Amino acid sequence: MVINTNISAQVGSRLLSESSSNLSKSLARLSSGSKIVNPDDDIAGQAVATRFDAQINRLKAADNNINNAVSYSQTQDGFLGKVKKALDRMSELAVLSQDITKVDGDRSLYQLEFATLGTYVNNLATKDFNGVSLFDGVTRGVTIDSDANTFSMSGVNLTATTYTTATGSSVATTTGAVTALTNVKNAISLLTTDRATVGANVTRLNYTHDQLGVLSDNLSSANSRIKDVDVAEESTQFAKFNILVQAGTAMLAQANSSPQSVLRLLG
Description:
Largest sheet: 2 strands, antiparallel
Number of domains: 2
Number of strands: 4
Order of helices and strands: HHHEEEEHHHH
Helix content: over 70%
């Protein structure tokens, strides 16, 4: 029996240190909810999870851009709905001005309303959405994924010649009313095309929004499998290491007291 080198105590101390380290890691996982507390817990998993986190955040940004583009398009359609009502009334006034029972004095009153509605349509062409023109006809690229690829959203141009010709017409005379009616009908035809374009933009953006939602869910699920802790499994490990720490502490105390038995031999 030796007392200078207590092998049992050394082994017990080493094992207790290992159990304590494992207990600390298990406690950190349970308290953080992540099984990758430190990069060395899973080097490759940490790298993949980091890329997934970044991609998910970029998808959220792209989805936010899409939602704003949908709001932009819906605002366009709201104004175009008002343009439709104005053009409908202008076409009605053009027909009323061709009434043979009306004199030019009556037609001047129709022209007053016709011109006012034309000005209203022209004013709508200057409207914007957060400083971005709604009706300048520019095609805009909307980001649709995490790599910032874009969808070309077709624009609407309320300053197109077809519209300005209609709004600049006159129903003050019978001849003018005939021409005005043709011009307004052309504007109405263009308006139906423009509203269809806006509707197609919204449909495309909504499909992309749904697609990004599905992709984000799948990436989040994959990311969770990599870095989220299984509480039930980790709780079992925690209980195991907790018991080992308690047992190791008791055995280390026992190993440290063993050399005291040498005193009996000396007595």
